[in-house]
Amino acid sequence: MSVMLTLILSYLIGSISFALIIGKVFYKTDIRQYGSGNLGATNTFRVLGKKAGTTVAIADLLKGTAACLLPQILNSTINPILCGVLAILGHVFPIFSGFRGGKAVATSTGVFLFLAPLGTLIGFIVFLISLIISKYVSLSSILAAISILVYSLIFEDTLIKALSFFISIFVIVLHRENIKRILRGTENKVGKRLKDDS
Fold first, then answer.
1. What is the mean pLDDT of residues 102-119?
2. What is the DSSP string of 135-162?
3. What's the CA gap between 7 and 29, in Å, rounded?
4. Which of 5, 51, 62, 91 is most buried, by the most CB atoms less than 10 A from its CB?
5. What is the pTM of this model?
6. How far from each other are the two terminal CA atoms of the chain, in whole angstroms?
């Protein structure tokens, strides 16, 4: 029973769309109607601003960490990695929001923060450097995921290597349209509010 409960709760925690909740409760705005339409931190930054975006980013990150902690809390034998994967899938395909969520960068970060803190720090540094240079959140997210993969291949065990590979591919696939826009030179850069232009 504790195994099934842990799995279900992991997915449900991931399915909590903080971007939608914060947008509707505090800004009377459904961010699915603006910008990329994604229920993630990046779109929240662009539509509602830094305060809302930062709150969503932190909350989405904590979802991943919380899911990984569930086996300890519920005294379950489930591997925390599986809980993390379910939280990530919940964020991308949330049952509470019509299975239309975000791109899971923050939630994946929360999972890795629990599993590989040093690798997460390296990924965050890569993200910041790339963001400062390129101004592209999407590119920075992809490079951060790849850097965590490289770290995991060198320092972590087989399961974490497999998870980092899965997340890297997942992040790249979810950002495929962003990649096309970067190549065309039409990708949005940081610092621009979108709601005001609508």
1. 95
2. --HHHHHHHHHHHHHHHHHHHS-HHHHH
3. 32
4. 91
5. 0.91
6. 49
